Amino acid sequence: MTKQAFFTVLVLLACCVALIQGLPTSSRERCLCRRSGMLSVNMDRVIKVEYHRSTISCGQEELLVVLRNKQRCVNLNGDQGRRIKQAIMEGRKVI
């Protein structure tokens, strides 16, 4: 009986390990933008523009603009955000 109990516990432990390895490490996403972002930004003050596609760690697309000493997110549903994303996708110069 002890052998059977040992093997039962061993099988249950193996199943638990297999299930745990398939689980995500965190329930929170690691996105750079916490909110939807600004609707528009003064392009004269922009130093750099970064577009990030959705990934495993962040399930949303993000558009970041780098100003002198800060980063801001631009809303991709806004008019300016759509135009900047389209320019990046087409390979045109944004700034």
Automatic annotation (TrEMBL):
Residues 1-22 form the signal peptide. One of its GO terms (molecular function) is chemokine activity. Pfam families: IL8. The keyword Signal applies. It comes from the Eukaryota. The keyword NADP does not apply. One of its GO terms (cellular component) is extracellular space. InterPro entries: Chemokine_IL8-like_dom, Interleukin_8-like_sf. Transmembrane segments: none annotated. Keywords: Cytokine, Signal. Residues 29-84 form the Chemokine interleukin-8-like domain. GO terms for biological process: immune response. This is Chemokine interleukin-8-like domain-containing protein. The lineage of its organism: Eukaryota, Metazoa, Chordata, Craniata, Vertebrata.
